[in-house]
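Hi all, long-time lurker, first post. I run a small reading group and we've been trying to get comfortable going from sequence to structure in the token notation. Rather than ask abstract questions, I figured I'd post a concrete chain and ask someone more experienced to write out its structure so we can walk through it together at our next meeting. Sequence below, copied exactly:
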Amino acid sequence: MPDFSTLRIAADADNPRIARLLLNRPEKLNAINDAMPREIRAAIEWANAEPAIHVIVVEGAGKGFCGGYDLAATAEQHIEHPCQQESYPWDPMVDYATMKGFTEDFMSLWRSAKPTIAKVHGAAVAGGSDIALCCDLLVMANDARIGYMPTRVWGCPTTAMWTYRLGPTRAKQLMFTGDVIDGRTAAEWGLANQAVPADQLEAATLALAGRIAGVPRSHLAMHKMVVNQVMLSMGLEQTQMMATVFDGITRHNPEGVWFRRYAQENGFKAAVQWRDSGRPIPEGDEARAQIRDMDARRPS
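-- Answer (accepted) --
Happy to help. Here is the structure in token form:
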């Protein structure tokens, strides 16, 4: 079996036609570090190369599926990073290259010739929702949560899957508010294929995976290719390009820099609490003025 630092993958003990891909950073709520996206891609490539495997289940260790990008430490520091550039002017193509690489890695779940199922308990939020929605199917616990809170400030979902999975009206609601929804609502809205009580999530997911696993691999690949082609014809690749550019802008425009400075001065948790509370977020000249004040207070 391949050896990874952020995840594990192996055939299911009871059904070798099912691969189990486990995001395995439970102490960090399976937060995404620089290694995880490329390891997801490598794991999917391994599963696609294994003739016995017909379907792949993606799940998270510990309390939840994935809490998004591992930002708490970097957001609080004045560090230079492709996606958090302190220098001025910022270089959008450096940011784009990094985030586009992560997006393409997540999209290996979507491109996989073998169907992928996200099994979600706890939270699949921010970048974690990108991973879940790149999977073909979504099974959630009733009390699980999914959403992209950074749309309020400092983020744009680079996979752009929300509209393709929900339709424009629901997608706009979640993108405009940054709200999360539970598994029951996700199923009612058609985002999740199924929502069940938490203690039935394993059985429900494996029942669906087992049903799929009985179909010949070639048939699964063809049917997936047909559906994916519809999404490509609707402009998925172009939409992802725009979303990835905009994601970089949200982190480097006045509002994004204000959020970063507030996190650096008051801690990432305090910045997130402001973001999610519904309080107005400083913008434009107000944001610039507060940035100047916070920079002036910054220890030299």
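A couple of things your group might point at:
The first strand starts at residue 7 and ends at 11.
Strands lie at 7-11, 18-23, 55-60, 116-120, 123-125, 137-141, 145-147, 180-182, 194-196.
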